[in-house]
Amino acid sequence: MIDRVSPADTTRRALMRYALAAGVAAGTAGLPSASAARFPAADGRRLVRPKVARLGDSITQFAESARISGTAVLHRRTRGAMTWVKTLFPAYNDDTWHHPEDTRHRRFLRGSNNGVAGDHLTYLGPENPGTLRRWAEEVAPMRPDVVLLSVGTNDINSYLPATAIQRDLRRQIGEITGTGAIVIVTTIRPRGAVGRSAWAAPDQASDVRYATRRAVNDWIRSLQSGRVLVADVNAYLEDPRSRGGAGGDWLPEVAPPDGVHPGPPAAWAEAQALLPILRTLIRDDNVYGEDPAEAGNLLPNGAFVGTSGLVGWGARGHCATGWAISRQSGDAWVEAYTVVEDGVTKQVLEITPGYHDTTFVLRTEPRLLPLTDVEVGEWLRFHLAQEVSAHAGWLAYSPRLLLARQDRTWSMIAGALETASGERLPEVAWSGWPATHPVRRAPEDAAVACSVLIKVAGGVPGRPVLRFSRAQLRRVPDPRVAWHAVTPDTNRHGLVPPVSTDLADPVPAERLDAGYRLSRRDAQ
């Protein structure tokens, strides 16, 4: 169990514990209550539903991993912080979609996600052209309003000197802001002592890469000015007591199995560095829509009213009309019931874990909804409101959209909130709007199914609870238009992020004692 920070616990580990234990009450989006207002700005200066592009390496790319098979599955995991940010603060255009014909850099992805595994800042080869080149050729023509730049770990891993990396980053940042866009630069994450891609040297003196990373991160932290913002994600991830007190390793609470790519807890922690910045830039909004009764919702009962739904094996109680809950594997039980809070009906699932990992599925009933009203070529997205209690055993609570084809195969578009083998979702409470990627109806698609995959680990005490409401399956505009259109740069250069004049730290003083560095401080 991760405890809240106590006055005596003043290391950076305490900072991480606070981030993981803070939880998310409705409307706070994962931050302590004062943090949402940490950087005040007039609404007229905030961006309204901007395009946010991500540019980087495998840490960016594998936030959405396209797995190509006979059923063309697009599977998304919580490796990337933006997965959490988008779920907790869905106020901007972050669309990514599966593009099986696009074989560039082995990605099969288009849209916001512009990560390429193994990429450096500069050119290595056709599969790794470098972020500088890809910005000019692929990303800049899409005219993003905000760019999240997360690159440099591979350059350091290749033993490039800090001066060369700083030079290339300076050029990259200048080219991005030169288009009028705002750039959010992240500090470079740790490399673990174990794992396939770790830096396994026993101390920093024997491996120059640690000193390079420290020098580059110190330089990045000095960049905060104008349209250049700094998200110090490393402050939430690095254990300063590791390697003899010189730092460089991950905090044990968030250390990923391979030593490099963030897992769900690390992604959640990174989101705490990004959310205040994005809330400063972007007007609070919901790009998905919140009212299931608005015209165009293809789900028969997105409001979860009624109690005549199907309660299958491993479940008891009642399920909303037009929905079904059942256990697919394992030995846990779920108590299902509905409640009305503030005029909103919610489907509640209260789980009693068993001895083994267990999978439940909440789905529409009937399972398949015909696509008679959806034209071939139209795009669909499934989203809903979701509230999650803190529990150490969460393995998945992810929305899924499945298209049934005439040949009885499936095309699945998965939501964000699942884990790989050996991983756990963070032990936090939160509320937000998880959603699938947009998917285009193909000629062979005959029906659609919407569901939520729920997994809990066996042998973990406590009764985890999920609440679902306001489910919607809607047509969405063709995302290719927004991301491929070249728009004028009029007034873009005049947009400078608001700067806070309130220097009071909004969270407990012990975070300051831990050496917490404000991610939006004045330029040094």
Automatic annotation (TrEMBL):
Residues 55-264 form the SGNH hydrolase-type esterase domain. InterPro entries: Ester_Hydrolysis_Enzymes, SGNH_hydro, SGNH_hydro_sf, TAT_signal. Coiled coil: none annotated. One of its GO terms (molecular function) is phosphatidylcholine lysophospholipase activity. Gene3D superfamilies: SGNH hydrolase. This is Lysophospholipase L1-like esterase. It comes from Thermopolyspora flexuosa.
